[in-house]
Amino acid sequence: MDQGFFLLFATVSVMTALAVVLARNPVHSALALMACFLQISAIFVLLEAPFLAVIQIFVYVGAIMVLFLFVIMMIDVREAVLQRFVPGGNLPALVLVALLGCEMVALVLWSDRFAVAEPAAMGDGDNIRQLSTTLFADYLLPFEVASVILLAALVGAIVLARKESG
Amino acid sequence: MVPLWWYILLGVVLFVIGAAGVLLRRNILVVLMSLELLLNSVNINFIAFGRYYHDFRGQIFAIFVIAITAAEVAVALGILVALVRNKSTLKVDDVTMMKG
Predict the structure, then answer these.
(1) Which candidate from B37, B51, B59 shows the least CB-CB separation from A20?
(2) I need a surface site. Which of A12, A30, A164, B21 has the fewest CB within 10 A?
């Protein structure tokens, strides 16, 4: 049951990821990326991380992809549609990516560290409470730093995208 | 139950696809989207390891990755809008102002 669902979500996510890279129109790429994020959030649900799944949908599908679509709407992508994507256009990079993929697959299949079949018991289903206790007790300082980083990014994005330069 | 290496393999495949998008595509928008794909594949690995070794730090780290990604996308798209306004190009190869 779990395996069937995993295979379904993994297949669709890989196909949509390929569509992101191969599509000529950036709008099609953005929509495929949205579908890919939805599949990945379903995989988070399979991994018993429902909070992360909801965060994934809120932040990625709700905020980041809408931001992408707004920017695509603002700028003119017609010129970008015309240029072709040539898979053999950059041969060294293609070879490098293929080598990287082969190496990582070989390492994953060789090592017995990844052979864990049965996950550790997750306790009594009180995951989110434990997660929030860990986050706000042990990782409070990184949490605050992340909020400062978000504020800085907010100000930086407004300054960068302002009309007059200065 | 799904074995751990299935998740790792999915992360590897998504990472390679994203890296190919970053290295091979010349459109800045698609390069940024491929970057999102890379970060998501890493998140899958974090959460899978956290689940299988019963450690919440995987999920904590994934939360931080998502937060930093949101900041990164906001700044990157701001730079992109400024770039299109000033140079009116979307190709990575045309942006060589910092080359000296």
Answers:
(1) B37
(2) A164
Residue of B nearest to A164 (CA): B82
Asked if B3 lies within 8 A of A67 by C-beta distance, the reply is no
Q: What is the mean pLDDT of residues A156-163?
A: 86
Higher pLDDT: A92 or B88? It is A92
B83: which chain A residues are within 8 Å (Cβ-Cβ)? Answer: none
Interface ipTM above 0.95: no
In Å, how far is A133's CA from the nearest CA of chain B? 10
Contact predicate A49/A68, CB 8 Å: no
A102 and chain B in contact, CB less than 8 A: no
**pLDDT score recorded for residue B95:** 79
Substitution target from A43, A66, A128, A131 for chain B, most B beta carbons within 10 A: A43
Give A66-106 as a DSSP string. Answer: HHHHHHHHHS--HHHHHS---TTTTHHHHHHHHHHHHHHHH
User: Does residue B100 have a pLDDT over 80?
Assistant: no
Do A105 and B9 count as a contact with CB atoms less than 8 A apart? Answer: yes
B74 vs B79: CA distance, rounded Å: 9
φ, ψ dihedrals at A42, nearest 5°: -65, -35
Contact B23 A93 (CB under 8 A): yes
pLDDT, tens digit (0-9, with 9 covering 90-100), for A52-75: 999 999 999 999 999 999 988 888
H or E, element range at A34: helix A26-46
- Topology, domain A2-113: Four Helix Bundle (Hemerythrin (Met), subunit A) (1.20.120)
pLDDT tens for each residue of B2-39:
888 889 999 999 999 999 999 888 888 899 999 999 99
